[in-house]
Structure formats: C-alpha cells, structure tokens
Design a protein that fits this description.
Its main location: membrane. This protein is mostly beta strands. About 5% of the residues lie in helices and about 60% in strands. The strands form five sheets. It has a 22-stranded antiparallel beta barrel. Strands 3-8-9-6-7 form a five-stranded mixed sheet. The protein starts with a helix and ends with a strand.
Amino acid sequence: MRKQLLFMMLLAIQANAQQEPEPSSALEEMVIQSNRLHIPITEQNRNITVITADEIQKLPAKTLNEVLSYVAGVDLRQRGPFGTQADISIDGGSFEQTLVLINGIRVTDAQTAHNTLNLPIPPEAIERIEILRGPAARIYGINSLTGAVNIVTRQPKNNGIFAHAFAGSNFKKDKEGNGELFNGRGIQLGGSYTAAKHTHQLYGSHESGSGYRYNTAYHNNKLFYQGEIIPNEFNKIDVLAGWANNSFGANGFYAAPGDKESQEIVNTTLVSVRSRHRLSDRFTLSPQIGYRYNYDDYRYFRYDLSKARSQHYSNSVTAEISGNYQVNFGEFGFGTEARYEQISSSNIGDHERENYGLYGEFRTRQIPRVDLTLGAYINYNSVFGWQVFPGIDVSYALQQDLKIVFNTGTSQRIPSFTDLYLDQRPGNIGNAALSPETAYQVEGGIKFNRNAWETKAIVFYRGIQDFIDWTRETTDVPWQANNVGKLKTTGLNASVVYTLEQETSRWKIGVSYTYLNPEMETNHEKSSKYRLENFKHQLVNTIGFTKNNWSLLLANRFNQRISSKDYFISDVRASYQHKQFNYYIDFQNIFDKTFIEAGAVPMPGRWFSAGIKFNTIL
C-alpha cells in the first residue's frame, strides 16, 4: 500500500479547467464571506481552505458531496453515493457539529444533520466553497462547533446556455434484484440572463439510476434560481430559491442488516433574500432573511408503509442584520440575528424553539507587522438560556509572504430535535435532559505564500464539553442520546501547493495532510455510535497538467480511521474542450477498493462514467 501510495503521488496528474489560468492577484482579492468583516483570503489568520470554481470543475465529481470528499480535514461519510446522502464533519467532530451555509445564510437542519447536504445547488453555480476550521460562533453563530462550510454562489457575467449529460456503470449486475446492469445517469440544463441592473440564472437537473448494489436506486430532481438586482452603485439585492427532491434505497443506512428493504425520501425547499447597502464611505449595512423547509420520509419497509415509517416536517426561519464600520485605526463588525425552528413528526412530536444572537468584532493593523481581530457572540436560546462565546485571531508577519498565525475561539451546539425527543423504540430514543455541547480551540502555525508556492502548517487543541453521543449498555436496549463527557482532540493540518505556468500548459501539485488524536474523558463505559469514527490520518494528493484543449486529473486519497482499516482511493478525469463542448470521462476508485465510510454501507467499487457539457455565451 505504501509503495502504491508513493507511486500514485509521484505520477498523479491534476488537470485544470478549460479556462485561462486566473492571475495570481485573484487569490489576493478573494474576500472571505463573514457577513461583517471583509478580509481577503491572503490576510486571514484563521485556518481556512477555499475550493474555487476552477478547481470544482476539474475534479472527477458531479455533486457537491463528491467535491467535498477531496478536502483534507473534511470527513464526508457517504451512505448513498452520487449525491444521495452524506454526513459532513471537520477535524474529528461529529456530523452534527459542522455548520453549513449558503452565501452566509445557515441551512442546517434542526431535525438532524443527516439531511444538511440535501441542497439544490449544482456545481456549475458555485463560485467557491469556504471551509473554516475550529469553533466559529464569533463569525457564524452557534452550531459551528468544529467548523463551517460556506457555499458562495456565482453571479453570471453574460447571457448564456448550459447543458450537461452523463452516464456511468460498474458493469456489474443486480443478482439479488432484477438482474439488470447497475447504472446511473443525469441531465442538467441551465441558463443566465444579464442586464445593466439585474442578472438571473436558472438550473434544473434530474439524476437517477439503479445504484451500485441491491436497493441503492436513486431519483434526484433539483431546481435552482438566483437573481441579483443592482438599483445603483450603493445598493444590491440578491434573491435565491431552490428545491430538491431526493429518493433513494437506504439498504444498510441506519439499522443494518434489518433495513435491507428501507427507503428514504427527502424534500427540501430553500429561499433567501439578502441585500447590501453602502450608506457612506465608512458604513455598510447588510440585512438578510432565509427560510428552509424539509420533509423527511423514512420507510423501514418500502413495500409496507403501515409499519416502521417515520415522517418529519420541519421549518426554520433566520433573519440577520450585519454591518461594517471603518475608522482610522481599524474596522468594526457588528450584527444581530434571530431564528425560529419548528418540527412536526410522527416519532419526534411537535416542538418549536427560538434563538437570538448578537455579534461584535474589531480588526486593527495599527501595530507594526501585527493583524489583530477580536470579538464575541452573545446567544440566547428559548430552551437553553444565555451563553457568551469570545474569540481572537492574530498574526505576526516575519516577512511579506511569511507569517505566524494564532487564534482561539469558542462555540456551542444546540441538540437537534432528534437528539432531544426521538421515540423510535426499540431502536433509538432521545433525551430531553441533554445539555448543549460547548467547545474551545487553540491553534497556531505558519503560512507561506511566494510566487508558485502556497504552504501552511497549523496545529490545534480542541476540547468539547458535554459531548453528545448515542450509546447503550447492552444490545437488548435502545440507543439513547447522552452527554458522555469531554472529547479532547489534538491535530495537525498541513498543505503544500506548487503551480508551474508555461506558455501553453500548466502543472499543479498539491499535498494535504491531516492528523487527529482524540481522547475521550468519560465515565460511560457503553457502546458508542459516533465517538470512534473519525480519521487518524488523512492524505489528499493532486498533481495536474493541462495543455491546449486537453486535460487530465488524478486525485488520490488515503484515509485511516480510528475504528476501522485504512483505504486508498484513486480517481481520474480526462477531458477535451472543443469550442463550446467539453467531453470527459471519469474513472472512480480505479483499484476497486472495498471500504466503508458510515454505518454498514460499503461504498461503490470501480465506476466508469462519461459526459458532455455544452456552454455558450449568447
């Protein structure tokens, strides 16, 4: 395995998209979207990873879930591949401890984070994905216990039409079912319209297939709209709406082996309105409101809906007003938010709660070579009361392109409705006496960016109090949510990226490594569902080459979990650009490795797919 890993790292070729390489200044001008302070990525003191639109398009991935699986430190535990279902966590946290946002508006599901990534946004509509590691209450509010993923959508610059069609298979037959060849296919259509004071884009997609093993068939339909209205140079309004209907066979997802005939249907609707108003040269104000509806229908017996069926209807509304005020000695960021969450469920019941928050931040660069940001988030929850979460980021520039960074922060995770109230006997029961999880983290390291090199190495220590896990003492009693103790995690994130630009070609070599060492302090000697699933070692390698209209990408991932064996996965995409058409072929899991990311669900073996994209400017 070690020889194979070394060989693939040396020979891996990472392709770039068929666009002209962006100038180096583009990275410097990219501003991380924190709603209040507007800090370019090169000036950030936090541990942040950014996946650009260019990188998204060249990966052998057709869904957001697959894109995120190539980020070191991000743990994508897929039960259903091809974008059906996946849990996301960061740096050893649980899947409930990562906050997901779209353009700074939270979309986390208060029922359960199992449904968080049921999003209608196609990769083609994404400008970038920002992954912020560590407790981030000061920036994004509660539930960002171990980090946050912010999906920033792009605004079209021209009128255009987009189409994408693909199909794939593992060339194996469903011997337990109808004997047909396992397969998957999809089609996506989109268009954009731009005018002097407004822009619009609309995407629709359908993906379906018989899956990759018995009862893994899926049918996904999605619609996504985004509009931008610019009345004048001082004001801007963004409108976003999306709908996703996801139906899939859930063989082995939650209660293997008894759930072989289970099925799940998840229907999600998102709507948000956000505006930005420059009231003066120093003062900017940005109100926003977001709404999320989710319907989750889990059928333990897909052919008998009279028993073991769970239906959940949840609604959440979030409103926020944030601002930015610049003074001669620095910059102030401030804001307030309110959120209402409600659920009506067959085995959770009817519940609702409210949450209110107040932000305050200050950034200054008045001290020579020092960049300092400090602030706090004050939170009130109608169930759990008041909390305060301070944080500080600071860096010291040893040279223009080399700096030492340090930050410490805190956050909280409110238990989900499932954690608190689920009654799914004899399988799982909630615990209304749960306390919220709280976390603090200290991290420090170096960042170096010069010419073709981008490097960083950051070590951290995180402590999570009142860690929530699903436990049981014996196999004849239900799993129950409990505060099981303190989870202490020491870790390292390191990455090196080298880019070589030539007249008609481009090479890019990237290696990212994450090491995690968790220790649980607990008096509960019980079986655990989630405590020991995180990575111990994770290595992601990409090296790439593009020449004229040809490109090739080979991405390698080595993952070793604490509670299971390690596995090595290689994927490749080859593509050719001819006028408005892009032809590509993907080979995923080249070495046909058998592995499990979550529960008892084996992931697909070797999978082949081919596709064509059409993109034209009108």
